[in-house]
């Protein structure tokens, strides 16, 4: 009996004993569960962000490669010959009488693109202001192809500016007139059926022309002149 009592006590002790451990483990089991529930959306977000970043970088690299491969090259424009057969400034007012014919070549250096001109405007300027302009016929410029455009500014026009007469007199004495030719283009590139946006490159050519009637300058002649052309971008 006496031995039973301690056993009973031992049992009760053992009964109290297990009561404590179960209280400790449950929090241990519950905590990881809680942690998993807290971490899941965060890791999902992390993975989504990583994938998003990778996709962005991949698209960026593809676009860069396409841009490098398909980047259009600038048009090459040269004035091959130009004849100034009349260039007179009226003695009494600022009326300019002119007859200028121009032969220029347009080269499309692109291997991949055909060019479709939507507007070709050619302006003639003297001492700053424009004294005439032309709208040239539109055409298609093939890949790696060169086209010759021949056009003529002819007529009379009032020119503005205080310095026109002094510039005119000086240049006539020197035997060379300096006329600027500017072109304003609107062009679309086309590859197969894909058509680009409309580009608007400006063209600028500085022409050095023998003064009409001056045999010394005429003998030296007009030199082939390369024009500055804006890039297609
Ligand atoms: C242009 O000027 C030259 C010399 O000054 C003159 O001989 C010629 O008649 C003029 N021509 C015109 C169209 O004014
Ligand atoms: C300019 O002068 C010329 C004569 O040299 C004349 O025929 C012409 O009508 C004048 N033009 C103007 C706008 O005054
Ligand atoms: C203009 O110059 C061209 C040569 O470049 C000539 O054939 C033409 O007859 C000239 N026109 C006038 C009105 O002088
Ligand atoms: C224009 O210039 C090119 C190159 O010099 C030449 O082959 C062509 O015959 C010229 N055309 C005209 C109409 O002057
Ligand atoms: C300029 O004149 C020369 C000689 O007459 C001729 O060969 C050339 O084709 C002319 N150029 C233009 C653009 O009229
Ligand atoms: C270039 O243009 C010329 C004249 O328009 C044409 O005869 C030729 O076939 C073209 N070449 C190419 C490769 O398009
Ligand atoms: C003709 O041009 C030359 C330069 O090419 C110049 O030295 C000469 O003065 C000019 N002659 C005339 C009559 O203007």
Automatic annotation (TrEMBL):
Keyword tags: Membrane, Transmembrane, Transmembrane helix
Keyword Disulfide bond on entry? no
Which portions of the chain have biased composition (kind: Basic and acidic residues)? Answer: 1-10
Cellular component, GO, one term? plasma membrane
Q: Any transmembrane segments, and where?
A: 42-70
Provide a GO biological process annotation: defense response to other organism
Highest taxon of the lineage:
Eukaryota
Under the heading InterPro entries, the entry gives: NDR1-like (IPR044839)
Q: Where does the record place the region Disordered?
A: 1-20
Q: Where in the cell is it found?
A: Membrane
Keyword Acyltransferase present in the record's keywords: the answer is no
Q: Which residues constitute the signal peptide according to the record?
A: none
Q: What is its main location?
A: membrane
Q: Which PANTHER family match?
A: LATE EMBRYOGENESIS ABUNDANT (LEA) HYDROXYPROLINE-RICH GLYCOPROTEIN FAMILY, OS01G0574800 PROTEIN
Descriptive protein name: NDR1/HIN1-like protein 10
Organism name: Dioscorea cayennensis subsp. rotundata
């Amino acid at each position: 009996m006496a031995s039973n009592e301690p056993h009973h006590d031992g049992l009760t002790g053992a009964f109290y004993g297990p009561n404590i451990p179960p209280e400790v483990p449950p929090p241990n089991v519950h905590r990881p569960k809680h942690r998993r529930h807290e971490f899941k959306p965060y890791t999902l977000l992390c993975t989504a962000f990583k994938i998003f970043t990778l996709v962005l970088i991949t698209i960026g690299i593809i676009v860069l490669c396409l841009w490098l491969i398909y980047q259009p090259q600038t048009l090459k424009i040269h004035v091959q010959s130009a004849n100034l057969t009349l260039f007179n400034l009226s003695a009494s007012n600022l009326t300019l009488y002119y007859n200028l014919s121009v032969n220029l070549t347009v080269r499309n250096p692109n291997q991949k693109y055909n060019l479709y001109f939507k507007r070709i405007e050619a302006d003639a300027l003297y001492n700053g202001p424009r004294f005439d302009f032309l709208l040239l016929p539109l055409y298609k410029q093939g890949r790696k192809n060169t086209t010759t455009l021949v056009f003529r500014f002819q007529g009379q026009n009032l020119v503005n500016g205080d310095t026109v007469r002094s510039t005119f007199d000086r240049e006539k004495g020197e035997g060379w007139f300096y006329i600027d030719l500017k072109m304003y283009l609107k062009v679309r590139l086309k590859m197969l059926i894909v058509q680009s946006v409309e580009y608007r490159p400006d063209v600028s050519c500085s022409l050095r022309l023998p003064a009409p009637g001056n045999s010394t300058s005429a003998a030296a002649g007009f030199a082939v002149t390369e024009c500055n052309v804006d890039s297609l971008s």
